[in-house]
Amino acid sequence: xxxxxxxxxxxxxxxxxxxxxxxxxxxxxxxxxxxxxxxxxxxxxxxxxxxxxxxxxxxxxxxxxxxxxxxxxxxxxxxxxxxxxxxxxxxxxxxxxxxxxxxxxxxxxxxxxxxxxxxxxxxxxxxxxxxxxxxxxxxxxxxxxxxxxxxxxxxxxxxxxxxxxxxxxxxxxxxxxxxxxxxxxxxxxxxxxxxxxxxxxxxxxxxxxxxxxxxxxxxxxxxxxxxxxxxxxxxxxxxxxxxxxxxxxxxxxxxxxxxxxxxxxxxxxxxxxxxxxxxxxxxxxxxxxxxxxxxxxxxxxxxxxxxxxxxxxxxxxxxxxxxxxxxxxxxxxxxxxxxxxxxxxxxxxxxxxxxxxxxxxxxxxxxxxxxxxxxxxxxxxxxxxxxxxxxxxxxxxxxxx
Amino acid sequence: xxxxxxxxxxxxxxxxxxxxxxxxxxxxxxxxxxxxxxxxxxxxxxxxxxxxxxxxxxxxxxxxxxxxxxxxxxxxxxxxxxxxxxxxxxxxxxxxxxxxxxxxxxxxxxxxxxxxxxxxxxxxxxxxxxxxxxxxxxxxxxxxxxxxxxxxxxxxxxxxxxxxxxxxxxxxxxxxxxxxxxxxxxxxxxxxxxxxxxxxxxxxxxxxxxxxxxxxxxxxxxxxxxxxxxxxxxxxxxxxxxxxxxxxxxxxxxxxxxxxxxxxxxxxxxxxxxxxxxxxxxxxxxxxxxxxxxxxxxxxxxxxxxxxxxxxxxxxxxxxxxxxxxxxxxxxxxxxxxxxxxxxxxxxxxxxxxxxxxxxxxxxxxxxxxxxxxxxxxxxxxxxxxxxxxxxxxxxxxxxx
Lengths: 401, 401
Description:
The structure is a homodimer. Chain A has 17 helices and twelve strands. Chain A is of the alpha/beta class. Chain A folds into three domains: 82 residues, 5' to 3' exonuclease, C-terminal subdomain (DNA polymerase, domain 1, Orthogonal Bundle); 199 residues, Rossmann fold (3-Layer(aba) Sandwich); 54 residues, Arc Repressor Mutant, subunit A (Orthogonal Bundle). In chain A, helix 9 links the parallel strand 4 and strand 5. In chain A, helix 8 runs parallel beside helix 9 and helix 15 crosses helix 17. The N and C termini of chain A lie far apart (70 Å). At the A-B interface, helix 13 and strand 9 of A face helix 13 and strand 9 of B.
């Protein structure tokens, strides 16, 4: 006979009634807090060692030599905050209503999870709802004109009324106008912060942040007590586009954060929309440059909604996101517009069949597919993007073998 | 021995010192004045019967049954004004400095001559210079805003300073602002009229018309005494785009003459440029629609000049149009962007060679062609348009066999 195992140690007094965090979660938080371990390196480490706990248990000697890990970084990982420190941080955040969403779990925004550089841990205050997969970001300059502020608001309100979640960065100017108009129209809104959620910036938006947390969520990659730093804004911008189906740039100078968000959106295969303005407004210059580079010029919310309808018709997005409640989306199995030969949607299938085996004129397709011309054109673009067809000229397409 | 032939009859008294018109020219004028004989039917008739004189000598019975000719039209051709009437019209016009330019002769604008529906006779007051092949049209609403008037002027002045001829329609608003600014900047300008050149419309632009005739030309398809009619404006618009390399729409409502000109331009393979504006200006709505349909958004004259430079670099237009003085351009032998396998320009040749025999990434081309990125991209588009290469995806191209 052997002795029964000893009872588990009781939790320390101060932790009674405090939320309980798993070692796996704590390990993710500890690893994410190591300076130099970004989303890409984390992924490599986990591929090499299994999970965050195993990475933290590995000796610096063993870590050194893993892809992308030198002796300095190995030392830094070895010096990661211990479990108690991480637990303390999370408990403090929890008293302010902040909890971590971990990549690969159902609560994590599924569209963001599809990105190669998705944050492993995303701090959240409020709720990310299943309908928030149907989200559009509205971004722009802090130094907005009355025109910019007006249409940031009108577009946000229009999206809210159409049941689309409005995403922005809680900054002064266009961002705040979009969040406010969305809330006033009864919509849901997500604010993606550059700093931690205990360091709301700018401070005068503390009240707006409260309202956003009540009717949506505040989200941040930075740990809760991290102040916003200039380098974290471009990083944050990839999350704004990453959680969204598309990004609307309302007013932006040629060199601005909104332009960075638009570039992230294009790289992430998101739609980029831009509001035109007068050419003597320097804050319209970024929008005009984006349009010259291929962004969609919009003259109202209908242009955005029409694009969403097309994406839905083509099966790129789910028109009834409630159906997806609780279904975790793993990074590798996530649907992607550019995945190799994904199943075709009903509309895509119809256009594909109308193309037939030889080169086909787009005008013929429009006549034969039995769909509105704009849907045929949009579907042709999607099939082309997916590598299923090729455009032989401006007016002819053919299937690709 | 036979008698010597009788001396030719002396010209009538009133014709002494009056200009002399050939029977061929008079026949073109007589045929063009038959209601129902437009440029396309004229071409068919001439293909069927040889030339305008022979068409007019053909009996209505014989004309009936020619492609597109019924008994009514055959009767109308039979009832064409006689030679004396046509001569009288031309003499009257000549006293006002108006002379006919006939399709296929060296004086006729060569770019217009390339069109299938080029007017057989174009009335001209002033001079069409060889440099006028390098022309850009600026068009827009009669009810222009201060913004529209300002930039119509700035664009016209900028084009004038770059040696580009400014084409427009002498209408109120944008057209007049473009002609005036071009003249003030010392440039050449062509005004294409909907009515005849003895019926300047609107009447308050009589003085502007004089200035245009002195530093460019007034041109019209309608006979000199024909008043402008509503149906002649859309017809006129095809000539505005037809004589130009591209059309700039400065301000236009969605349904407007400027939009018709833009559509003609696109059909004629001309560039379409549009100035953006605020979305609450209904006169910007046409411009925004054009941009959504593929027109180039411009924020200044440099965007237009860059495009002209690209066309020149690719050999689509001649950077030194003086070299072409006096060279007639026949409709069939005219250079065309879409002609089958035309010789490649130096730039096109370089890009073509850089593409090599297999699929090539556009980024690789930009690295290897030794040309600025925008020139490579523009040349890729031109080669694609000419059917010489195909785009396999957004980023890959290949030669077409």
